[in-house]
């Protein structure tokens, strides 16, 4: 039996709009957040903790949120709550200039992002079971478009209006998303597979899941320490405007989305998943090392676009591998664990970079991170099983 069935259709277009408003509200200020808090007097380490708190709260909450929403049969409710937290986060960041409060309100964005599991599960339920990949690909596309649009517009407003303008924009869009979420249709399968603690303990013993989860943590370490963390700070030192920081982030993220399509499909079929992941980490590592040696803004954009291709080649395949060999009834639990565990990298990356930046310099921090990326490529080569078949994922948006 299906509860809360729609009489005509499940309003998929509305769901896509709500998804875009949700992600837009949390990414309007991402390109300028680190330089902004450092401009307020925060150390590199404190800036890293603030940026990383977004991943830390996700890591703690994603699995409990999935379990609780399963038990309550109220995924739409959790979606609305998630967008409400995004609104609170934006309002708080807009109103305060105290670094401690900024840490709290940035953490609330992580609480909001923890409900992404409910977005993906509810949206997938609108499709036939055999169309699950299509559903994930569709919602991931809107995820990526919303994030890039938010970063572009938010950084433009920071440049033309004020540092705090992107926070106000995020809050306004979050409020609109919260209102729109009440028109979504809940859909629940009584006999559908549920996330449970018991099932989780069984699933996490899988060798492949553990391996790709560790690699995913390291992937997020690189991403959130650089493009969503301290690369904009380096650009600021080059004299780049706030809008330029946004362009840098957008042009670093767009290749990731493009590479997700070809890496998880054509390349992995032709060359094998292991090789694509290996070269993805090599690209990311090498072009992270180049950052401190870059003296031109446009050259910095080129190098970070190439690093973005590396992220797009590696991460979606890791996501696909996390469930590829799992029985169908365990895939939801495996994906829930995978999404929760890579939040550790979102937290650890910016904190590690901040600590290195305070003890040494940011330039040396980029070199250390780049070396970690290259070593991760070697680790992937050693641990991923050779297989020429695709992981079956066409896009891999992160939260």
UniProtKB/TrEMBL annotation:
Q: Which PROSITE patterns match?
A: MFS
Boundaries of every Major facilitator superfamily (MFS) profile domain copy:
11-388
Locate the transmembrane regions by residue number: 12-34, 46-65, 77-95, 101-123, 135-157, 163-185, 208-231, 243-264, 276-299, 335-356, 362-380
**Where's it found, cell-wise?**
Cell membrane
Gene3D superfamilies given in the database record = MFS general substrate transporter like domains
Q: How is this protein named in the record?
A: MFS transporter
| Membrane topology annotation | Multi-pass membrane protein
Q: Which domain of life is it from?
A: Bacteria
Q: Which UniProt keywords apply?
A: Cell membrane, Membrane, Transmembrane, Transmembrane helix, Transport
Question: Which InterPro entries does this chain map to?
Answer: MFS, MFS_dom, MFS_Efflux_Transporters, MFS_trans_sf, Tet-R_TetA/multi-R_MdtG-like
Q: Write down the PANTHER family for this protein, in alphabetical order.
A: CHLORAMPHENICOL EFFLUX PUMP RV0191, PURINE EFFLUX PUMP PBUE
Q: Which SUPFAM superfamilies match?
A: MFS general substrate transporter
Query: CDD domains annotated for this entry?
Result: MFS_YxlH_like
